[in-house]
Hints:
It is a single chain. By secondary structure, the chain is α+β, with helices and mostly antiparallel strands. The chain folds into 2 domains: 2-119, 2-Layer Sandwich (D-amino Acid Aminotransferase, Chain A, domain 1), CATH 3.30.470; 128-280, Alpha-Beta Barrel (D-amino Acid Aminotransferase, Chain A, domain 2), CATH 3.20.10. Helix content is 27%, strand content 30%. It is built from 8 helices and 15 strands. Strands 7, 8, 9, 10, 11, 12, 13, 14 and 15 form a 9-stranded mixed beta sheet that branches. Strands 2-1-6-5-3-4 form a 6-stranded antiparallel beta sheet. A hairpin with a 3-residue loop joins strand 13 and strand 14. The longest helix has 14 residues, at 44-57. The protein is globular, with a radius of gyration of 19 Å. The model has no long low-confidence stretch (mean pLDDT 98). Bound molecules: N-(5'-phosphopyridoxyl)-D-alanine. N-(5'-phosphopyridoxyl)-D-alanine is lined by residues 33, 181, 184-186, 205, 207-210, 243-246.
Amino acid sequence: RTVYLNGEYLPETEAKVSIFDRSFLMADGVYEVTSVLEGKLIDFDGHLARLERSLNELDMEKPEAFDDLLEIHRKLVELNDIDEGMIYLQVSRGSAGDRDFVFPDPEVVKPTLVLFTQSKPGLANNPVAQKGLKVISIEDIRWGRRDIKTVQLLYPSMGKMAAKKAGCDDAWLVEDGHVTEGTSNNAYIVKGGTIITRDLSSDILHGITRAAVLRFAREAQMTVEERPFTIEEAQGADEAFVTSASTFVMPVVEIDGAKVGAGEPGPVAKRLREIYLEESI
Ligand code: PDD
């Protein structure tokens, strides 16, 4: 695989980052995941805009190549012959050559920019979408700025592991009795034809797929309500689903052992998945 590191396209084995890099020592880095379908980037502009916002919120310098990011994404797709898959991008505050809680002087220390591709054949026709996901709920104990897409992913990883251990696929995070989001996706329920998903705040990541799906839903005259909901409400809903750049729209059929609706992917989630794939490619 050919990857990108600070201005260079390199074989993955030759791309080296300092052991003092702040993303490694302090999780002082932000990232984006953009999907690729039919060799095309999906929702690139949204991901770029969110990256810029994450950098701003953390007072992190834009990498020098910021304005070339579209070109770099396209070049990596081409070099790695990606038809279906993902591009992972990470910006860290760089390495000051030592460990220090204080941010290094941005005049001296430049950000580290890394991009690599992941080929995922069958991403659009994912058989999991036919079956749906089983989720468990766990307490959301992440930090309070979940709107910033940082690389602090230990708790979401632990959530996925807890789900796996319980024979499930993913976990929904719950704070003050209400679902915030999934470990790596935004969460939705459907009741009486209304699509319900938590409103945007620093409690959740402002999903790029979420924005597109809600726009398509409204364009298709579906009713959308942006508000928090509980696990009990979700278990009693007609349907549930999640969205993310890596799963698009993915039905959820079971929550904490209780079937949602008929325990099968519902018509709204199926329709939204179709619309999203049709409109985005
Ligand atoms: N995760 N919420 C969280 C906590 C996420 O990590 C993600 C994305 C989303 C969905 O955002 P978007 O639609 O912009 O992908 C919501 C990515 C895919 C990941 O970590 O792999």
